[in-house]
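Entry:
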Amino acid sequence: MQRISVIGNISRDHIRYPDGHSGHYLGGAALHIALAAARAGAHAAPVAVIGDDLALLTREPDLACLDWSALRHATGNSAAFAMVYDTHAAVRCTSATYGVSHQLTAHALGHLARHPGDFYHLCCRRPLHVPALLSRLATAGARFSADFFLPSARPLLAAAAPWLPAADWIFVNAAEYRLLARTVDPAVLSGVVVTDGPRPARLLHHARPVAEACPPTTTAVELTGAGDTLTGTFLARRLAGASPAAALEAAVTAAAHHTTTRPRPLPAPYCP
């Protein structure tokens, strides 16, 4: 199986939930997706830039399954995000300080030049220069997938549009899919995975449904990272040869399980 290189942020997250609970957690889409892929049996590497505040990250026993060779440590602070969820499990507001992750585009372009044979997943988030990465992936003939984050999806979908037809898979939620369909004709897209909370997830091939999976009923206590868990699990299973239906079923099950366990707070060395 190809190594999955996941380009995106690793961050310190401050999350507030509608029940009043809040906490500081280790986060970032690159970490969540790579970790889910590794737990599903893939060789997965986060392509990220972290600062001094997360310098001990690679020593965490729970993360030993990851390939850390594509992680860059830079002097300064890591990206930090603050997110507030509403009672409908949607992000109501978010704020960010990007720190050393401003170096991510250059770092990722260098990694792609050295490892063109990897499968790439691009977390289309600020401050990454999405067109630079997607154009390089497409012109290099690399296999890749992409996902978006609703608060920034409109401008980043527009920026990514010319290269999305070259993607193997695009991962969006229902609201993001509506934006995607207004930006790119879904009929030109090879694979789109559309999630919709507790409702069935769908896999579309050139706008035609080819698989559907209903998440198991669970009591959710954690929201952050569920979509990333689905993405990483789906990629690992498909690249290992699973059918679209089997990969989607495994992915929605893993995502549902992720929501049932509150993440551990950031260890003391990482706390702000």
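The first helix runs from residue 29 to 39.
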